[in-house]
Amino acid sequence: MIKKSKNKVFRNVQKRGGLIIPFDISKITNAIFRAAEKVGKLDFDLAQSLAEEVILRLSKKKRVYKKYVPTIEEIQDTVEHVLLDADENKIAKEYILYRQKRADIRKEKAAVLDKEEVDEVDKKFDLNALRVLASRYLRKEDSGRIIESPKELFIRVATHTSLSSLFYDKQVYQKRKSKAIFDYEDFSPEKNKGKYKIGKYILNQFHLEAIKRVYDRFNKNGNIKLSWGDFLGKIKDGYFDKYEKEIDSFYELMTSRKFLPNTPALANFGNVFGMGSACFVLDIEDNIHSIMDTLKSAAIIFKSGGGVGYNFSKLRPSGDFVKSTGGASSGPISFMSLYDRMTDVIKQGGIRRGANMGMLNSNHPDVEDFIKCKTGNSAMRNFNISIMILPEFWQCLEEKKPYPLINPRNNKVVKYIDPKSLFDLISYQAWESAEPGVLFFDTINKYNPLVKALGPISCTNPCGEVLLYPFESCNLGSINLLRFVKRVNGGGESSFDWDEFERVVKLATAFLDNVIDINKYPLPEIEEMTLKTRKIGLGVMGLADAMYDLGISYDSEKGREFMENIIEALNYFSKEESVAISIKRGRFPLYEKSFYGEGKLPFAGYKDKSAKRDWKELIRKIKKGGLRNSFTTVIAPTGSISMIAGCSSGIEPNYSLVYEKNVAVGSFYYVNPVFENIVSRAGIFSDRLLKRVIDNNSSVKGLRGISKKLQNVLKTAMDISPEDHIKTLSVIQKWVDSSISKTNNLPSQARPDDIEKIYLLAHKLGCKGATIFRDKSIKDQVLVAGGNNSKDKESEGEDKFISKKDSKAEGYAVYYQPNVKEISSSQMDFSNIETSKQFCINCHTELAFQEGCRFCPICGWSKCG
Which of 20, 537, 591, 737 is the most exposed place for a label (fewest CB within 10 A)? Predict the structure, then answer.
């Protein structure tokens, strides 16, 4: 009989490092329940009752200690004794194993971060997340030694982002412009680092540099009331300490893993480069000066961590007459090759290699050669390529009329081609090489709010989802949907926390708007253009994992309805916040020339009668208060930040449930933790199951012993039909301002005409573009994650696996054979590995293909970045 008792004796607990924190019984309850889940015992009431017994026993120690504060170790020891005394031996075993795993993981985390003890932030992130942070984001000495913790990283980023708010304080900002204030006081950020702070947050050299840079801009524009000396005085006097709460909120937003900004902000804010934007588009005019100036500009952007898109359609075709030399033009493809070679030798500030999007309009005379320029993935390795399909093409295709190719130099028709043959060529190359992608000019500009002010958009960022004008940039960030799934009574049913989602969307919108002001732009033209349009790109990640946890099938009607609800809410709440910021800080400068005043919005869904939100009322608010940002939403790839957040990428279905890493002495398996938790709750998790999933191409489809319900929920990318991939793309696009990064997966046996049908369907359903990936379509492509044997058969003499999962934090769990040691790449023998597979150059895990790129699901290495 378990007695229940309220804890009236102790209110605090001592952590391993000696820190005293408030005691929280729910942590004991949840730990016991997790152990119970592992043995298929979903009894939350039992977990609560056992936790109460733990408190009762600890309370009795009051007789021994006058001021009793139990340690973590004491509590855990007591939990073990309570479980054993209650004859819950299976749960006790799992709890003891879990406790040992946690101890091992703490040691591994400390080793990764090169520190003696992990802190409360380190504990929130799984090992893979910390490895990615350590390798790409944390500050290092010249020797490579880490000199920054994740906690310090998020503090410097949160502090840097919040600095924008200082300039809109009522004592500082004035909307009505006046003459600049002349103040010649000399100021050295380097000499003053550490001397200024906002509340408890100390400003480093790069924070101070950012403050001076933004002050000078506001002063130049006549929007500042204070001299530079007076502004510094207000920081010293503590006037701005009230913004400490905003820094707290931005810090909590990131460390809770509910939202993360794009890689440049994490790496650069509060750091030397200071650039938080990820996406850029540059213009290329038809002359050598423009071509080389753009090349130089791209190199500068790469250095700070950005990616660049270019539309080469203004360049005259190959062989065309060049008046200045009397010779012949080499054409856009040759200049693309020049950009490709430049990218090879420029690293983006040590963060990632340069990424490019090369585009050509469908009516350019070199379009056929452009489509084939990446055949076999043997050239242009630093480029994604896309065809911008112009409206006239669809008309010619439908009416079976010859399609004119036009020289951009003189706008004369060079020749006519069969539009069906061109469409066949595009589809065949996508079938063969996974490129080019396609973009739809008509749909893009139908929902372009600035088409009257700036003309049509004809280019995107490298991944194709951010629609930008020349010299425009955009900063991105994504909300982790998995963090909003709440277990009802700690048990089997789950729900989505819509109230918390609204709060986070609005806070993340404010975060990204702040980035625009505090950002250090690589070029003055980019700064000027970006400040005119103020585009932000708020998106989501963790969709597939959240739907797993909610028991919703990705390719079902219910699944698509859930996706619509999520993205509609994302756009609605971000627009509400953009209106609120506009009222306080001003509209984006080109607002009056946009279509917002006409009651239009940059996506199709607001006209939908089935909309869940009151868009008419929001349009009324926009007309009255304006908008701060010309775009607020985009669905971007989230390769690195989703690994840090411990969730699936973007809106992609999971590529795999289990990944395999081959080494000379055996195999390691990395398991999706949401999948593990689900099959554990169903009482079917086992070592045998892992092997069967691996042998089934890392899918549960068709596996005996897995219920049809679970098979429908736990689908992977290749389990979903191409048509359903496009349907998903279209229902999400209906609610997104910009565009979407999503890979539409096809099986290896798909034919080129299947791809044509998909492109036609995508255009018909209102998508702004489409990217196709047929399995095994690239010669050096990775094989689908999983084993070589796709048959579902029982394994004989199977090896036992040991879990190394940090079950408190999301991420991939790792299972490996006993006594297997990590070995260096120089010791590995890959002579027996199939040539069709491709492995990570860092950790030798099989690569996955999502969001248009091959990447390592374990360490984050990517061929695109």
Answer: 20
